[in-house]
Design a protein that fits this description.
Length: 194
């Protein structure tokens, strides 16, 4: 009987692992040097993803919202001047930024940087914040009211997982903003108390 139970548990574990891997997002960005182009492919869970291509001066060259499971696009870079460009993909959980160099007919992807975003859950007058701080950077959390007055502030240092619950059940009627800052990014979440 123990052997049957153990085998059933192993099969269940393998099924859960395979199902989890099947739902992982697949993202690739490759260069086509001969044709001075980029090929972008995305397979993800059915959620909204924003993609952008912009130059060193933050001028947006291309922007699109993607809804759906699979997407592929070839970007023609022949009309771009020599320099550095950035290609970003952003969904509700993370942002990935590729640094791209264009010199003559040579296109290179120099760097890929991935940053996780905080997750907010609103429920019954409570707001729950979860933030995976992979680099263990200093993180500052603030709550501001509609007049930009500081209502709450807290700093975290050297924390991998940051979890915080905000109780708005007895808060005054107003609009509030939760601000999460790390060394590189600032994230905002708006809350309205009626």
């Amino acid at each position: 009987m123990k052997k049957v139970t153990r085998t059933a548990a192993m099969i269940a574990l393998m099924f859960v692992t395979l199902t989890g891997k099947a739902n992982d997002e697949k993202l690739s960005l490759i260069t086509k040097k001969e044709s001075k182009s980029l090929v972008f492919e995305l397979e993800s869970k059915s959620q909204e993803t924003d993609i952008k291509l912009f130059d060193d001066a933050n001028h947006i060259i291309y922007s699109e919202n993607i809804y759906g499971v699979s997407y592929a696009k070839k970007f023609d870079l022949t009309k771009l001047e020599n320099g550095f460009y950035y290609f970003t993909t952003e969904d509700s959980l993370k942002k990935i930024t590729y640094t791209i160099s264009v010199e003559g007919s040579d296109v290179k992807i120099l760097k890929r940087k991935e940053s996780t975003k905080p997750v907010f859950k609103k429920e019954n007058g409570m707001v729950y914040l979860n933030f995976l701080n992979l680099d263990k950077k200093e993180v500052e959390i603030e709550v501001l009211d509609s007049a930009n007055r500081l209502v709450f502030s807290e700093k975290y240092e050297n924390e991998l997982i940051i979890e915080k619950a905000f109780n708005f059940k007895k808060a005054f009627e107003d609009s509030y903003t939760i601000v999460v800052k790390d060394n590189d990014n600032t994230y905002f979440e708006d809350i309205v108390v009626k």
